[in-house]
Amino acid sequence: MEQLLSQVDPHYNNVEFRHPSCWESEVVRGLQQRNIIFCTVSGFGLPEELMITQGVAYIRFHGAPVYAGCYTEETLKNWAHKVKQARINNFGFILIIRCMPMQLAMLLL
User: Fold this and answer.
1) With 30 labelled, which of 3, 8, 16, 92 sits at a CA distance of 20 to 30 A?
2) Given this model, what pLDDT does residue 72 score?
3) Does the predicted model carry a pTM greater than 0.90?
């Protein structure tokens, strides 16, 4: 893991992983030590746990199915719930959502 983290460019402040093993606490700690933001990914069969590092929740939506679809209302409600719960538990974090479905934006209001 140290070898992987040592290859991350410190000037690029976020990483989007594509393997489930990267959701382990060792990886998250390593990113935090290097001031790098963990990008939570929606898709690819990866864990959909909302990660907050460096005071930032960064989510990237790829579609369902990936690159070709839309999200169901139930899926978007689940994401909205995760974000709202994180707001309660981690007051003061920054939320960045890339490729956000409009329906999710409405649920977060």
Assistant:
1) 92
2) 83
3) no
